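Notes to self, HotDog domain-containing protein:
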Amino acid sequence: MSSLRLLRQLGHRNSLAQARFSTVPPSLPKARRPWTMLAAVTTASIVAGTLGAIYPPPPIAILYPRPAPAPMNPNTPEAQAYTEDLEEKLQSLPLLQKLRSQEDAKDWYEVRPYQAFPEERRVNHLTAGSLRGPGKLAVYPLLRVKNDETESIIVLHLGRGLCGHDGIVHGGLLATLLDESLGRTAICNLPERVGVTATLSLNYKAPTMADQFVVLRTKMVEVKGRKAYVSGHIEDLNGTRLVEASAMFVQPRYAKLLNTDQLKKVMGERPKEPLLLADGQDLHPERTHR
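result:
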């Protein structure tokens, strides 16, 4: 073997040996100090707890609702100011503004039930009297009704004093509101404009939280002689369905003998004069009120 070749082999082996013994092992991560981890966990817990207290998740808000004060005395200045503020919020709702400005707005009219109801009868009426006031049904419901009486859109506020489980509106109250609203649509389509509830079916889709505006929509399905079939639902302002309903109303055989004036005042009659907004402008200047 030539001396040159021997020197090359020896040099190669020497290089491998140096590389083997000079390799530096990868650096290991430093162990995190226990107090650092504890501080991070504590900070995260405080932040999560604070956010949860301010914006509680829906399940927590349902299971552990915040306590609320009792409804105010309706005869106090504070109660009057609360009701007036709520009325302003109702009138400025984006949904209501949108409905009033749509192209087919002339095909609808607005009415406020119970406003013309006599006081001597109001005191013993459930939704017009007993449940009326701050913390309950503080403002009169606002109805937008189609001129042909086949549909209605009702906006109303549900206070904290209407709950079954604290913070959640009582299901029986929602049934009452649906019964009256569906009944109005049905009665307006019956021959003698009188009807009583025969059947009412409800499907509760989600809890209805208190202290919020809700929208109740009704639609005429069919009229067969003395029977009127209607459907409807309650939704929140985001469009989430809370309760669905269907019902049948029947006109009594003695309907022609009844005085329907009081019923009209309860339901709210279609306005005969121009309906004016707060600034004095006609809500429907493009149509003639009948």
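- The CA atoms of residues 72 and 78 lie 8 Å apart.
- The beta strands are 108-111, 142-146, 151-158, 196-204, 212-224, 227-236, 241-250.
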